[in-house]
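Q: Hi! First time doing this. I have a protein sequence and I read that you can turn it into a structure. Is that right? Here it is:
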Amino acid sequence: MIRFLHTADLQIGKPFHWANDRARLKLRERRQEALDELARVAEERAVDFVVIAGDFFDANTLGDDVVTQTCARLKGFSVPVLILPGNHDFAGGPGCVFKRDTFLRNQPEQVTVLDTTEPHVLLDGRVAVLPAPITRKDQVGDPTAHVTSQFGRDVAPDAVRIGLAHGGVVDFSGEGTLSRIDPDRAERAELDYLALGDWHGCKQINRRTWYSGTPEPDSFQQNDQGHVLCVEIARQGAMPSVDKVATSKTDWLKYEDEITTEQDIDALQRWFAEFDRPLDTLVRLELSGTLTFEQIDRLEQTIADLENTILHLRRRGEGIQPKASADEIDSIATDGYLRTAVERLRAQSEVPTEEGAIAKQALQQLYRFKQSGS
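A: Yes, that's right. Below is the predicted 3D structure, encoded as structure tokens:
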């Protein structure tokens, strides 16, 4: 019986430019801390080794400080760690981060970078890892094409055969995948398990082929991020047993709703009041609908409280459109010229144009000004 961890897409050094300063620093640190969590799981599950299926680093151009800190954390593993270059940290050319003096000088002895297609034999010949490293950022073709049923058998004929690759077996993004892997590669090459990276969520392709996903979420895609796979294989030809282990320290949540009543605002408040770890929570908020000026003010206060409570709030969508009630119009418009101006703004606000949107905002500002002065 062999037991190993399968992970991928840590993308250590990812900048998270879109986040606020507080969130950006924590999210970058979380990617480093994922190594500590992986080392803990490796010890807890008593695994024989760890495979990382590409995009360990976010880029070949990241700073030496990130490389040095990462190598220090890798020293926390007590078992062999095998790293495959992906499209972010591709192996081709002298600029590869794994060929940098800083990495080579600090590389722990238990860490091996599989930057060639040479089979890597472990556990006295009981395991053969068959790598398919990415050598160019925009690599085309199937990187596992060299992995055939005979590949590696000359060096370890009776070994459990584990393929290690990075790329898409399907076009997950809808934008085309340059590095496309044959989804039947495990069967064609008589692999006992094919460990894949590139898709950031945990996904089973077939009985012997899995994406582990990233161990620490890095987007609001609800695709089962934040896990590592613990794989057990009894012997060559045996079916793998795969256990999904949660490793995430951040929660990436989406809230999408049409807000039209006070009860809808109440529901939003109840939702974020139930967060288990608000300081480690990011929220993508996408709201639509129409509210009165008073309701909008209450909603904005609710959202401000949410933003101040959690790690990061990201707004998307068309947002809430103001629609003044009759009482609110009356409270703004007294007599004379002001009432005439307000009535014109109200009429203009009913028109679905840019000018109409400006008129709505103008009415809301007048209402707030009136309320602050009363």
